[in-house]
Structures are given as C-alpha cells and as structure tokens.
Amino acid sequence: MELGRSTTGERAFNWGNAVLLTVFALLCVYPFWYILILSLNEGRDTSMGGIYWLPRVFTFDNYRVMFSDMTILNAFWITVQRTVIGTAGSLLITSFVAFALSRRELPGRQPLLFVFLIVMLFSGGLIPYYIQLMNMHLINNFWVYVIPSLFSVWNMFVMKTSFQNTIPESVVESVKLDGGGYMRIYFHIVLPFSMPLFAALGLFTAVGQWNDWFTGAFFVNDIQLQPLPTYLQRMLSTIEASQVISTSQMTTINQTRLYNPDAITPKSVRMATIMITVLPILVVYPFVQRFFVKGVLIGSVKE
Fold first, then answer.
1. What would the mean pLDDT of 38-49 be, rounded to a whole number?
2. 78, part of any domain
3. Does residue 3 register a pLDDT over 80?
4. CA distances in angstroms from 251 to 66, 229, 246, 247, 254, listed in the order given
5. Domain membership flag for residue 1
6. What's the CA gap between 103 and 132, in Å, rounded?
7. Can you give the pLDDT at residue 298?
8. 3-class secondary structure for 43-82?
9. For the whole model, what pTM was predicted?
10. 3-class secondary-structure state, position 58
C-alpha cells in the first residue's frame, strides 16, 4: 500500500463522518431557522400549522410590534451598555484578583482562597442581597447591572489556575530583574499570554449579561432603565393579556395602533422576540470562536 493514500475503509469512514456531522449541524441550525420563518409569517396563518421551511404569508408585523415605539430601543441600548461595561469591568477586576492570588508570595493567600470558595458555594439569599443593594443605593439604578457582577469567583479560580500554569515563572522573574512591577507584569506578560482565556470567559460573561432579565425585573421599577430581556418579557405578558380584553381597553393602553390583531398572535410575537434577543450574540460569536476552544483548555496542561 502506498503511503499517503487512504484505504477504502478510511474513505468510507470519512464520508460517513461528514454525513453524520452535516446532519448534526442541520439539526442544530434548524431550530433557529424555524423561529426565523415563524417570526416573518403572519401569526394567524402560523396557527394553522404546516410551516416548516419558508414563510407562507410574509410580514414584518411581528417586528413592528417590537419596534413601534422608542421604549424598546432604549431597552436595547441599556442592554448593550450593561453588556459592554459589565463584561469589560468583570474581566478586568476578576483578572486583577486572580493574578494577585496566583502569586505565591501574596500574604494570606490560602485563607483568602478559602474565603472565596465559601462565598462561591454558599449564598446569603435574595433578601439580604436586596437589602445590600438598597444600602448601596443601587435599586432603580443603572449600575445595579454592573457593580454586583464586576467580580466572579468561578472565573477568578479559572484565571488563577491559568496564570499559574501558562505564565512562565522565568519570564516573571526577568521582568522583576529589569525593575518592572506587578502592573507591568500584568499588562505586558499576563494579558498577551491569556487573550484566548479572556475571549472565552468574556463570551460567557457577555451572554450572561445580555440574557439577564432577573435583575431588571426585581431590582428596577423604572421602565426607562429596564434591559431588553426584562422589557420583552413584560411586553409578551401584555400582548397575551390583550387577547382577552376589550377593544376599548386595548385603545387605552395604545395597543390597537401597534399591530393588526388578525395578523398577530402571542406565538408569532414570541418568535420575533427570541430572534431579537438571540441575534446579537450569534453575530458576535464567530469573532471569538477561534479563541474559544483554546481559551477553555488553556491552563489544563502544566509546563
């Protein structure tokens, strides 16, 4: 047998593997495609069933419900701000703590790690958390989305392990011999070595920030400060309730001007809501995908 040429069994395996992975990829993609076509189809027609691949009665009315006033655009902007600021701040603060705890010369390092572990495993509960936010004047405040999430104990342990296993101690010692301090070590050594890790953890943090509806629902009453997931959840509840109230009541809450009741159903609007919520993350993910696997595995193997 000539070197470099695959056997019949290897070719059959490769073809079978390609077909299997293609089917698996289609199974993963189809739910998003199905949601998209339902969001672009007339709601009343959708309730009749039989839509699987393309919209049968194409319409943008489901999206017009979402974007008919400026409130939802403001909610979208709030979500973008909290995601960007919260993700960047969390990576910075958490990595500072992780870098400090990764240095064996830090006084009280082991007791601090034990305290962080206890905090991660046991929570004080919702009521003490609410009281603490109230004492910090964060209730009905934009910074309630950012400040409590600036530090993640789990991410800190992941970063600490990565810094210890991937940052050569010889490089750190050479920087110290050149007169560099810990800030120089962090920005010139730790950051360049750990960009894949930051990308992976940044993606997880950003997804958590983007999808968080709980904070806006329980700690923010001002509708102008509510993020997109919270606002859309409340809008869905309003739309579903509008199916059983009178036309005069719908006029009172300004919903008759938002959509044609014959074309819109709660299910169709829910599909549009899912697309609006998921699409930004799907757009961002390809840009960090090349760092993802490396960032998750980094630090798993020691020198």
1. 83
2. yes
3. no
4. 17, 25, 9, 6, 5
5. no
6. 31
7. 55
8. HHHHCCCCCCCCCCCECCHHHHHHCCCHHHHHHHHHHHHH
9. 0.75
10. strand
**d(C-alpha 11, C-alpha 225), whole Å:** 58
Q: CA nearest 126: which of 93, 157, 148?
A: 148
230 and 115 Cβ atoms separated by less than 8 Å: no
In this structure, are residues 146 and 92 in contact, taking their beta carbons and an 8 Å threshold?
no
254 CB burial (10 A radius; 0-12, 13-18, 19+): exposed
Residues 79 and 228 reside in one and the same domain: yes
Here the tokens at position 254 are 């300004």
Domain carrying residue 78: 63-297
Question: Which CATH number covers residue 112?
Answer: 1.10.3720.10
29 vs 263 pLDDT, higher one = 29
Condensed to tens digits (0 to 9), the pLDDT of residues 79-125 reads 999 999 999 999 999 999 999 998 888 888 889 999 998 988 888 88
pLDDT band at 283 (very low <50, low <70, confident <90, very high): confident
What stretch of H or E contains 286? helix 266-297
The residues with which 216 forms a beta bridge, in sequence order, are none
Q: Angle 127-77-149 (CA atoms, 0-180°, nearest 5)?
A: 35
Residue 40: phi and psi, rounded to 5, are -100, 10
Whether 171 and 156 have beta carbons less than 8 Å apart is answered as no
Number of C-beta neighbours around residue 35 at 10 A: 17
